[in-house]
Amino acid sequence: MSARHHNRARRRPDGPRRTSERAARRRRNLAFARRDALVQARLQDLAPDALVVDVGSGRLRRAGWVGSRRYVCTDIRPFANVDLLADGTALPFASRSADAVLLLEVLEHVARPRELLAEARRVLKPGGTVVVSVPSTVPRHEEDDYWRFTAQGLGQLCAGLFPEGEVHAFGGTFETLAFLVSYYLALGAGRAAVPVRRLQIALMSIGQWLDSHNQWSSSTTRLHTLHLDVLFVGHPADCSGDAVAGPDAESAPAAEDAGNLAGRQEHGSGAGKHHAQ
């Protein structure tokens, strides 16, 4: 080997490893990963013995997000990871028994999303936390797929029940356009058995960079902008005058009983419920 080629090899001994590390950093910086990181950070603020109810969890199990806190996931479908089969509008929990309720990528799949929010408020303790994420610009991906939300729209939907809240948007205009391009490329490539994951990450990383270098494309108030996903984190209104008994209040488990389900073997965690991420 010539001295020139030998020196070049010495300068880049870990080329594949560095490439892998760069790809991992890019994935962590994409819109869905940024959303999930914020959700996890908020859950870490809960008390060590908090009960977290994950409504409509689908095939995902996010117990890793809550640490040693009690975690119960529900769904109307009997997936292996689901602790309780339950309709999101009639949760089998006593009123004011949960410290946090997660509704992640769920509201778009129900015809009357406000009913799920009302049920979340019922089971939350005073001062509890609701975390709601919904798609803003994502292709239709299930038969029951009714809604898309802007940041303003999600805030309005949640405000009546959770007046103390904040809305976050993820994926600005250029990252969203890059996602849509990569989404349809992946659909076509899937039929041709061509891997395009790296291309997807690269395109979205470029879009995210463009969004970070201007004030327009990530705005939630300016016209002609796009976002991939929006997130609401809030706390319930004072419902002391409300009838808080749920539809199955007599048979609903107390918080400590429901929390015992958290001792199940964990099956890992995930991001959004249905989106190609």
Defining key terms:
alpha/beta; 8 helices; globular; Rossmann fold; single chain; 277 residues; 7 strands; disordered C terminus
DSSP helix fraction: 25-40%
Radius of gyration: 21 Å
Strand content is 15-25%
Largest sheet: 7 strands, mixed
- Please state the average pLDDT score: 83
Low-pLDDT parts are 8-13, 240-251, 263-277
Looking at the structure, the CATH topology of the domain at 47-171 and 227-263 is: Rossmann fold
Strands, total number: 7
Provide an overview of this structure.
The chain is of the alpha/beta class and 277 residues long. The chain has a domain at 47-171 and 227-263: Vaccinia Virus protein VP39 (Rossmann fold), CATH 3.40.50.150. Helix content is 35%, strand content 17%. The chain is built from 8 helices and 7 strands, in the order αααββββαβαβααβα. It has helices at residues 3-11, 15-28, 31-43, 113-123, 151-159, 173-192, 197-212, 255-259, and strands at 51-55, 70-75, 84-85, 98-104, 124-135, 164-170, 229-235. A 7-stranded mixed beta sheet has the order 3-2-1-4-5-7-6, with helices on both faces. Helix 4 (113-123) links the parallel strand 4 and strand 5 (124-135). It is globular and about 45 Å long. The termini are far apart. The model is unreliable at 8-13, 240-251 and 263-277 (pLDDT under 50).
Summarize this, please?
This protein has helices at residues 3-11, 15-28, 31-43, 113-123, 151-159, 173-192, 197-212, 255-259, and strands at residues 51-55, 70-75, 84-85, 98-104, 124-135, 164-170, 229-235. It has 277 residues and is of the alpha/beta class. Strands 3-2-1-4-5-7-6 form a seven-stranded mixed β-sheet, with helices on both faces.
